[in-house]
Amino acid sequence: MTHRKILIITTNHSSYPGADAVGQARMGYDANTYIIRVPDPVMFPEDFYLNAFDKGIGGIIIMSSGSDCPYEGAYERLSKRVARVYEQMKAKGIAANRLKLTTICTVCRAAFLKEISEMQKAVASV
Amino acid sequence: MEDKIKEEASRDNYRQEPKVGVYVCHCGGNISDIIDVKAVAAALAKYPGVVVAREYAFMCSSNGQDLIADDIKNLGVNRTVVAACSPSLHELTFRGVLQRAGVNPYLHEHINIREQASWVHKADHAGATAKAIKLAQAGVEKVLRKDALNAIRVAAEQRVAVIGGGVAGMRAALSAAGKGLEAVILEKAPRLGGKLLELGKMYPSGEEGPAVAAKLEALVRAEKKITVHTGAGIEFVSGFVGNFVVNFKNPDGRMEQVKAGAIVMATGYEHYKPHNGEFGYGEAANVVTLPEFLALMKKSPAGRLALAGQEIKSLALIHCVGSRQVEGVHKPQADGKVNDYCSRVCCSSALYAANQVKEKYPGVRIYDIYRDIRTYGMQHEEYYDKASKDGVLFLRHNEADQPVVTSDRTGHLVKVKDVLTWGEELELKADLIVLVTGMMPSDISLIRSQMKLPASADRFLQEVHPKLRPVELANSGIFVAGTAQYPMDVPEAMASAGTAAAKAAILLAEPDIPLEPFVAVVDEHKCTGCGLCPAECSYDGALMMTEKNGKKLAQVNPALCKGCGACVAVCPTRAINVAGWTLDQFDAMVAAIAKE
After folding, report:
1. Any residues with CB less than 8 A from the CB of A109 and at least 6 apart, and which?
2. Structural domain B275-439, CATH architecture
3. CATH level 2 (architecture), domain A6-124
4. What is the mean pLDDT of residues B21-33?
5. What distances in angstroms separate CA B243 from CA B192, B326, B346, B508, one per listed residue?
6. Number of alpha helices (DSSP H) and beta strands (DSSP E) in chain B
């Protein structure tokens, strides 16, 4: 396990309960993972992610509700914002695979673990 | 819909020097077996802003809650962080503690160190402990930046939509009506009753299934608060707690709509259908499932058990068909998974049926072939005792050595590697093979996908918590009753339906439901009136520009705002935030997590 911390941004409606479902099933993953929950990650401006990297966060997984997002237009706005973050990361020399926008539902246990596993590989090479 | 939402009058202008109390729960050993809770409390006791940090066996217990209330009273704690189970279980519990102690309930932060720490980091105690400390510190940073908030209330339809008109659906509707609510039953079949209509004599009452269904239906039809739609094909379910809309098609093709404040899912089960050739089913004559056998018994003449005119002098019951399946041994279902769960009720059902056979046709030889027998439930073990005394012969096999049935014109030969005789391979002849089949959930994939209803690994609807919230789904306002949740017998289904109706009645006890006040708010001192934020808002009228004392300002209508935060990200001065979820809070949390 790497010591680099992974920040996982989850949604109240979808991916946070999904993370709970992983625990309820007693599936395991590494302890360098820190889950925070928000109504929707669309609220974070571009600099939130860049500041998090500056503070020492190794990787960030945005686990959105995707097209099932209960907020109208939020996912589309989030996708565009994350695309802008990638541009800014590139300009600053931050590897693109340290940020991942994905969709996790309340029962997406396997997908949740897969995303963590992939991010572990990304932060291991930081 | 938006006109039904209003903000509760402000009763709180809480402004005091923040004093944080941190409370770390052992959850019995669920947390403390993995995480060093004393170390977490010790680390947090030294954290800036924290005046007290404690650990306790069960923070959610009365004694645990009293610890917090006492600290509020004696130490002046005015913000709390509880590190425990998921906030979906107990965040409201602890908000209640603050409220009762005179502190604004939203000055609380709930940290999940069970589902997202101890339960997933079992092999890494040190890592889990370090993570719990960081999460609790992040929680302190967040709560230090929280403001007192006031609830928003949503006007709710005083009506329950009950999907499914079997025993659980009818019972749920009757219970809801008994509590003063309107109930609408939507049943896809042409008549009420569900699987009860197929059953014969049922344990433990000995009543016939159709008779019970008829009794319940008579009560339902007599209740003015209940409306019944049979032959109703549900097309689309939408909405949210207090304001669900169920669109369904009548048998004549007409579309109708039910508006409801809550939904009870009483969608029932299907019998496991053995695949072709499973113990000879579908290929050999006289191989039937237990439900088919019960129907056969109803038609059989007194004094003679017969199938298609042929007398049955011996029968073999084979348990666990379609349940407790083993990967690699059994054929998987369409989703690629075997039914590895126990269907619970089949053992008692099989033994009850065996006893009926012995009572009506004492000369029939019965072999009961099982892996394990689980006659759970009050006095159900008596069915096993009676069967033993009446001469039913029991044979037990292990999971890898399934019984083998070979059939010819003379009947069936069953080979069993019997562990009760130390693995001896026994052969027995039987005129009839009865497969004791398990339950599978009804296909409700359409509603499940539309409403994102959670299901467990065995495909039944999954409650939030089996003990604490046993009939609530994670979707607020949606409850589950009967075998839609897991295999259960009729008394259990009735009990669960009554509970679901009671929870719906509690939810809808008042004309409006209090919801969390997490909507956008504008700091007028920071707002420069740039006008970027209204363009981000998808909800008409929720966010507009206005003028106040000659200054352009963004203005939020809290009745229309959904609290998504799309506006927050574009504000160059961070003047707009979602109440309770501000960017400053998250920045501070991330800093606390990132700090070495």
Report:
1. A18, A21, A22, A25, A27
2. 3-Layer(bba) Sandwich (3.50)
3. 3-Layer(aba) Sandwich (3.40)
4. 98
5. 26, 43, 39, 11
6. 12, 31
Closest Cβ–Cβ partner in A14, A43, A106 for B569: A43
- Selected for mutation to probe chain A from B449, B465, B590 (highest A CB count within 10 Å) is B590
Q: Which CATH architecture has domain B2-151?
A: 3-Layer(aba) Sandwich (3.40)
Contact A34 B138 (CB under 8 A): yes
Of B86, B564, B590, the CB nearest to A52: B590
CB contact under 8 A, B123 and A28: yes
Q: How far is CA B167 from CA A91, B181, B258, B486, B490, in A?
A: 64, 19, 21, 15, 7
For residues B348 and B346, what is the distance between their CA atoms, to the nearest angstrom? 6
Would you say residue B11 has pLDDT above 50? no
Q: What is the pLDDT of residue A70?
A: 67
pLDDT tens digits, B120-144: 999 999 999 999 999 999 999 999 9
Determine the distance in angstroms separating the CA of A86 from the nearest CA of chain B, rounded to an integer.
Answer: 16
Q: Which of 73-112 (A) contact B at CB < 8 A?
A: 73-74, 77, 81, 105-107
In CATH, the architecture of B159-268+442-510 is: 3-Layer(bba) Sandwich (3.50)
CB contact under 8 A, B538 and A71: yes
pLDDT score, position B8: 57
B217 pLDDT more than 70: yes
Chain B residue with CA closest to A65: the answer is B452
Q: Which CATH architecture has domain B519-578?
A: 2-Layer Sandwich (3.30)
Nearest to A40 among B117, B128, B564 (CB): B564
Residue B569 is nearest to which of A28, A44, A55, comparing CB atoms? A44
Whether B275-439 and B159-268+442-510 are alike in CATH topology: the answer is yes
Give A-chain residues touching B240 at CB under 8 angstroms.
Answer: 70
Are the beta carbons of B466 and B90 closer than 8 angstroms? no
Asked whether the beta carbons of residue A72 and residue B539 sit closer than 8 angstroms, the reply is yes
Task: Give the residue extent of every domain in chain B.
Answer: 2-151, 159-268+442-510, 275-439, 519-578
**Predicted pLDDT at B13:** 39
- Beta sheet of B50-56, edge-to-edge order: B50-56, B20-25, B79-84, B108-112
pLDDT of residue B466: 74
ipTM of the complex: 0.97
